Amino acid sequence: MELKNAMLELLRRASTDLAPDVEKAIRQAYDNEDEGTSAKNVFGTIVENIELAREASTPLCQDTGSIICYVDFPVGESEKKYREALEWAAMEATKLQYLRPNAVDPITGKNTGNNIGINAPYMHFHQWDKPEVRVRVMLKGGGSENVGTQYRLPDAALKAGRDLKGVRKVIIDAVHKAQGYGCAPGIIGVGIGGDRVTSYALSKEQFFRTLGERSENPELAKLEEGLIEDLNKLKIGPMGFGGKTTVLGVNIGLQHRHPATYYVAISYTCWAYRRKTMIIKGSEVSYD
Amino acid sequence: MIKLQTPISEETARSLKVGDEVLLTGTIVTARDAAHKLMVEERPDFIREHLNGSVIYHCGPVVRKGTDGSYSFVAAGPTTSSREEPYQADVIEEYKVRAVIGKGGMGPKTADGLKKTGAVYLHAVGGAGSLIAKKVTKVDTVYKLEEFGTPEAFWVIQVEDFPCVVTMDSHGGSLHKDIMEMSAGIAKELMDK
Asked: Among A156, B9, B62, B171, whose Cα sits 20 to 30 Å from the Cα of A286?
């Protein structure tokens, strides 16, 4: 096993091969829409595209996103090794058109052309006590990133207080404001508590959860379930054309907050919800 | 299903209504943020002949360069159109553009521009990158590739049966506005629950 080639394969799969839980949810949404509606046609096109991308090994979406990578590794391993392997893989994946060059200098407007730049790809490292290495990658689209938002409770305009009822209100508000802009149906990641930075980070990490898997916290699990039902009543539908499915999932995480603050960060990902996990055990590599 | 072929006349553009499903064939031009800023600030002539009676596609494609130097599209779905809201109406008028393809719809300034010049907004399926790339049969030429990079360059391409839905027309109709208003009422009810 060569680490850099394994990383390249991880990126290829992430970009071209939609995860089974997401595909299943999309097929259910297709079945659920009425014949002859724009919503049904959109889901039909989406399903066709999923199959084509996998078969041809081409990107599901031309916006192959920002590369966000989480590495969990055993004691004594070097972070540098993983960083170098991922950077090589990102450059190679760009050459092979698995990825679009997406790293732009904010001053000059110049695209680096290879997805490598300052904090690009962005990597999170975490040491753990297991013997294996886990590399999780998310390709986060820019259009859906733009509809993400953060609330500071209490929010007077929404009459949202510092409790789960307030959290529910701001999530409804965010999804309503997102309309179809983030390529609905979306998956909503929510981070409650923490500071400005960590609430967003927690909201993004929710995207690694399997769709349909509820929070271990019973109150959050109940909130998630209720929100999936309520948000779909908004009838924004796929692409904002109107329809029965506006969200495919709502995943909420929480962390302790400072007494003076109460942040709710909401991240939105498009239906082209690209994430893959790679486990390295000795010389064996598996992908999920 | 309505078959639409570029160049599109003003009369044809004005005959289209919100909800119409179209299959577009002909030459179109990709343009997004950097391109729109340039078109409004400098009104360049190099793109004029390609845009007259033609279509702007909000798209930042993934492109393959062949060994012979020719280009082909690998993934090419629409990008969010609202970023071009400050520019779009002026671009449509200046270059006599008859349709804009994107996703998410656009605002009141563009709606007025569509009315004034006689043009429509066509919605493609966001995220359908591989599928739409199959509808791109040829890359004719590219402008500003070096300066803007692959996603932002002007790609002049030929498409065949590119599926879109009219979501804003030249009569003031906008599906996006309708859905926004409809869902606002529901959101309020849900919040009060």
From this structure: B62
